[in-house]
């Protein structure tokens, strides 16, 4: 916890100096209970930015390769960041994520799986929807927009939490197919909200 707080403080100073951060929707962050944060992903600065904006301790999921880097790996491990093996089913990651959520913790996910430099939303994985159903945890959509260049404006918009019960379940068809379609619907709802939160056309 000490390492996480120190890292968050240092990034807060960095962001204050380097960018003009505008945050809306902080009132939508549940102050307690299990929570899954889902955000779009355009830069390696997205995770620390979300950590700075959210007042709770966020246990992010990060690619396993980062843990092999000097200093970075040490900080990630002591901040209880969860490693994931990309491109395959990682049961250890799922087990750790469930443990965090069932302890009323906050899990941070980037469901596109990797950075999207084109800034067009990629397809979302089903992980957030699965964990939301499994752990009865709301999903908080977050949209990050703007360019990470010196003194540029970065907008962070926090939407309203989405719960599995918000999405009408499929009641017909085989049980397995119905479960998959439910995850599709929840994932679609999360992606649609993040897409709206990233849209700067109204500014």
Structural key phrases:
203 residues; alpha/beta; Glycerol-3-phosphate (1)-acyltransferase; seven-stranded mixed beta sheet; 6 helices; 7 strands
**Individual helix count:** 6
Placed side by side, the strands forming the largest sheet appear as 1-7-6-2-5-3-4
The proportion of strand residues reads 15-25%
Radius of gyration: 17 Å
Helix-residue proportion: 25-40%
Number of E-state strands? 7
Specify the overall morphology.
globular
The topology string of helices and strands comes to HEEHEHEHEHEEH
CATH fold call: Glycerol-3-phosphate (1)-acyltransferase
Class inferred from helices and paired strands? alpha/beta
Overall CATH class: Alpha Beta
Tally of individual domains: 1
Low-confidence stretches: none
User: What composes the largest sheet?
Assistant: 7 strands, mixed
Please, could you describe this protein's structure?
The model has no long low-confidence stretch (mean pLDDT 89). The protein has a single domain, classed as Glycerol-3-phosphate (1)-acyltransferase (3-Layer(aba) Sandwich). Helix 3 links the parallel strand 3 and strand 4. With 203 residues, it is α/β, with parallel strands linked by helices. It has a 7-stranded mixed β-sheet, sandwiched between helices.
